Amino acid sequence: MLSGGLGGGITAATEADDYLIYDSSAGALYYDANGNTGAAPVQIATLAARRGLR
Q: Can you give the pLDDT at residue 24?
């Protein structure tokens, strides 16, 4: 599930159920195993096209 607040510069979960985070300004896709609690997210991919997700 992607965060409803996606946008440029988003690099951290904002809710407990945010596991995938997309930073559209960098094209970075992150996985956060525990949502917005505890450890930082881990970048798992860089998307070259950097298109907005729907």
A: 80
Q: Encode pLDDT of 1-54 as tens digits.
A: 444 444 556 666 777 777 888 888 888 888 988 887 778 889 999 988 766 666
CB count in 10 Å sphere of residue 8: 9
The answer as to whether 45 is a domain residue is: yes
Strands 20-23 and 42-46: unpaired
Give the domain extent around 33.
15-49
Nearest CA to 16 out of 30, 36, 33, 31 is that of: 36
**How many structural domains compose the chain?**
1
Token pair listed for 3: 């965060």
**Is there a domain that residue 19 lies in?**
yes
Asked if residue 8 is part of any domain, the answer here is no
